[in-house]
TrEMBL record:
Protein family membership: Belongs to the tRNA nucleotidyltransferase/poly(A) polymerase family.
Native species: Parapusillimonas granuli
Parts of the chain that traverse the membrane: none
Cofactor(s), names only, from the UniProt record: Mg(2+)
Lineage: Bacteria, Pseudomonadati, Pseudomonadota, Betaproteobacteria, Burkholderiales
Top-rank lineage group of the source organism: Bacteria
GO biological process: RNA repair; tRNA 3'-terminal CCA addition
Annotated ranges, domain tRNA nucleotidyltransferase/poly(A) polymerase RNA and SrmB- binding: 149-210
Domain Poly A polymerase head: from-to ranges: 3-124
GO MF assignments: ATP binding; CCA tRNA nucleotidyltransferase activity; metal ion binding; RNA binding
The entry's keywords: ATP-binding, Magnesium, Metal-binding, Nucleotide-binding, Nucleotidyltransferase, RNA repair, RNA-binding, Transferase, tRNA processing
Name of the protein: tRNA CCA-pyrophosphorylase
C-alpha cells in the first residue's frame, strides 16, 4: 500500500509556514481495513475507515470517493475500495490548496493545480461537489481568515452562495458551526471570516441575531488578535452589537465561558461609557465589578476589560489595581468585627471596599 501526507501540512510547508496542530493527515491507497488492522492500526472512523497509527497516533484514512445521497454535510455515501486512486481521493476535497499530496520521498502529487493557486494566493474550489457540502462554506470562510492575503475565486463564491440559496447551509448542526467558528476566531484576521459568511448570505442562517457591522467588527477583532486575546473575548467582541449576544452563543452551542463573556461585555462597555462624576466613580466601579463577579473571577473580568479596550480607550492597569484593591479587603475580619450581625456586615464590607478603591 502507498501512504501520502495530504492537506494542511503539505499546503503550509509549501507556503513556508509552520503547520497547525492536527493538520498532518495521511491517506492510504491500495489497502483494506483488514490489512490496516493487521498492521496494528487502531480503527476510529465512523462513516468511513480512519485509523490511528499504533505509535505516533496520527490519523490515517483510506483513500475514498463520496457521492451525495441526502441533505447536509452528513448526506454522503463513501466508497473506500482498494481500487480508489490518490487522484480520486484528492478530487473530493474542498479547495485546491488542500488537495496536494506528498509521498515519503518528497514527491508532490498535485492534479488540481493547488501549487499554482498557492503561488497566486487564491482560494479555489476543487469541483462542483463543493456546492453539496455546507461545511465547505464554513471552511472557506475560516481559511479566508487564516490566509487574509488570499483572494477567493469568484466562481467559488458563486458556489458558496448556492449552498445558502438551496438551503444546504440550514442542515448544519450547531456543534459543527462552532467548531469552524472557533478556529476562524483564532486566526490573525477573524473579521474576514464573518465578511465571507455575510457576503454569501450564510451569516443570518447560522447565527440568527448576529449584527454584521464591518466598520467596527473587523477593527475590534483585529485588535483582539494583535493583543493575543483568547477565544472567549474574541467571541464576545464579535457578538457585542447583537440585541442578545448570549443567545447567539447558546444557538451555536459555544462553551459556557464564551456565552458568559458575550453576555457581560455589553454591560462592561455601557458602564465604562458612563461618566458618574461628583466623586461617585468608586461606587460605579464597585457596582461593575460586583456585577461581573470580579472578586471570584478576576481574570475573566480583566479579559472583559481588555476586550473593552479594543472598542474604547480603557486604563487596563488602573482596573487591575482596582480589582486587587477590593480583593485585598478581609471579609472575614469585617464579619468578626460586626460580631456576626448579618444586617451590618454587607454595608461594612462595601464601605471597606470603597475605601480601598479610593486609595488604589
Amino acid at each position: 500500500m502507498d501512504v501520502y501526507v495530504v492537506g494542511g501540512a503539505v499546503r503550509d510547508a509549501l507556503l513556508g509556514r509552520e503547520a497547525k496542530d492536527g493538520d498532518r493527515d495521511w491517506v492510504v491507497v491500495g489497502a483494506t481495513p483488514e490489512q490496516m488492522a493487521a498492521r496494528g492500526f487502531i480503527p476510529v472512523g465512523g462513516d468511513f475507515p480512519v485509523f490511528l497509527h499504533p505509535r505516533s497516533k496520527e490519523e490515517y484514512a483510506l483513500a475514498r470517493t463520496e457521492r451525495k445521497s441526502g441533505r447536509g454535510y452528513k448526506g454522503f455515501t463513501f466508497y473506500t475500495g482498494a481500487d480508489v486512486s490518490l487522484e480520486d481521493d484528492l478530487r473530493r476535497r474542498d479547495l485546491t490548496v488542500n488537495a496536494i499530496a506528498q509521498a515519503p520521498d518528497g514527491r508532490l502529487v498535485d492534479p488540481l493545480g493547488g501549487r499554482g493557486d498557492l503561488r497566486d494566493r487564491v482560494l479555489r474550489h476543487v469541483g462542483q461537489a463543493f456546492a453539496e457540502d455546507p461545511v465547505r462554506l464554513l471552511r472557506l470562510a475560516r481559511f479566508a481568515a487564516r490566509f487574509p492575503d488570499f483572494s477567493i475565486a469568484p466562481e467559488t463564491m458563486d458556489l458558496a452562495r448556492r449552498l445558502v440559496e438551496e438551503g444546504e447551509v440550514d442542515a448544519l448542526v450547531s456543534e459543527r458551526v462552532w467548531r469552524e467558528m472557533a478556529k476562524g476566531l483564532a486566526c490573525d484576521e477573524p473579521g474576514r471570516m464573518f465578511q465571507v459568511l455575510h457576503e454569501t448570505g450564510a451569516l443570518p442562517r447560522i447565527m440568527p441575531g448576529f449584527v454584521y457591522d464591518p466598520s467596527t467588527l473587523e477593527s475590534d477583532l483585529a485588535c483582539a488578535a494583535r493583543r493575543g486575546l483568547g477565544l472567549a473575548p474574541r467571541f464576545a467582541l464579535a457578538c457585542r452589537q447583537a440585541d442578545d449576544p448570549g443567545a447567539i452563543g447558546r444557538h451555536v452551542r459555544a462553551p459556557g465561558e464564551c456565552v458568559d463573556y458575550a453576555r457581560l461585555l455589553p454591560a462592561v462597555l455601557d458602564a465604562l461609557g458612563a461618566q458618574p462624576g461628583n466623586g461617585a466613580e468608586p461606587a460605579a466601579w464597585l457596582d461593575l465589578m460586583e456585577r461581573c463577579d470580579a472578586l471570584r473571577k478576576p481574570e475573566r473580568f480583566m479579559d472583559l476589560i481588555a476586550a473593552a479596550d479594543c472598542v474604547r480607550a480603557v486604563d487596563v492597569d488602573a482596573w487591575r489595581r482596582r480589582v486587587d484593591a477590593i480583593r485585598s479587603v478581609d471579609a472575614g475580619a469585617i464579619a468578626r468585627a460586626e460580631q456576626g450581625r448579618p444586617e451590618r456586615i454587607k454595608p461594612a464590607l462595601r464601605e471597606a471596599r470603597m475605601l480601598a478603591l479610593r486609595a488604589s
